[in-house]
Write a structure and sequence with these properties.
The chain is mainly α. The mean pLDDT is about 95. Helices cover about 55% and strands about 0% of the residues.
């Protein structure tokens, strides 16, 4: 995608949604970290449903440790892979207490040392909690980047690096949210809704999806 088209691509997404936010619910940096860890291979809606009661009770690493592994499992048992995720949340909570004074670190290296925290999770936390210009590439962004031609790459890291290089300054902080939401609600995996896409004319995807047939009244 040409530089001028990249700018216009983001400009339209920004105009349509000037202040995009993560759809994961949290009450502070710590609960955001926990929510992102729990969201791996799960929907944001499913995580939110499970964590509303949890975060009303637990909003610090020490409170999570006080709740304990079994107590946490009871809250998140509806989330996929909850046993492994519960162990990681308890372990990362202990690490935060032991190594960071109970606070969430604001750099990728320290975040990625926490149990259950990979590069994507670290990027989300750095962006949402600390306003860093990071690009958390999930399945939606990987698809949108490749399909549109905005940031093509064979791996998640390749797409992340391409986005980092291609995204201009005015749009860097919110870029990954715009792309996630666009992929989740418009540029869908099985049937992209090209007929209502505000950036369709800038997109490299050739097999544009036509609008569904109008329903006839009986």
């Amino acid at each position: 995608m040409k530089k001028a088209d990249v700018v216009e691509f983001y400009r339209r997404l920004a105009e349509a949604n000037p202040h995009p936010e993560t759809e994961l619910e949290s009450v502070n940096d710590y609960t955001l970290l926990v929510a992102v860890v729990l969201s791996a291979q799960a929907t944001d809606a499913g995580v939110n449903k499970a964590t509303r009661a949890l975060f009303a009770e637990v909003d610090t690493p020490q409170k999570m440790l006080d709740l304990g592994l079994d107590g946490l499992k009871q809250h998140i048992r509806t989330i996929g892979l909850f046993n492994t995720k519960a162990k990681n949340v308890i372990a990362l909570s202990q690490a935060l207490v032991d190594d960071h004074g109970g606070r969430v670190p604001d750099n990728r290296e320290a975040l990625e040392k926490l149990p259950g925290v990979g590069r994507k999770t670290a990027n989300v936390v750095m962006n949402v909690a600390f306003g860093a210009e990071t690009f958390a590439v999930d399945t939606h962004i990987f698809r949108v980047g490749n399909r549109t031609g905005l940031a093509r790459g064979k791996t998640v890291l390749a797409v992340e690096k391409r986005l980092d290089a291609a995204t201009p300054a005015p749009f860097r902080v919110h870029a990954h949210h715009w792309l996630i939401l666009h992929g989740r609600y418009v540029c869908k995996a099985r049937r992209p809704e090209c007929w209502r896409c505000i950036v369709a004319d800038l997109c490299a995807f050739k097999l544009k999806t036509p609008p569904p047939p109008a329903r006839t009244k009986e």
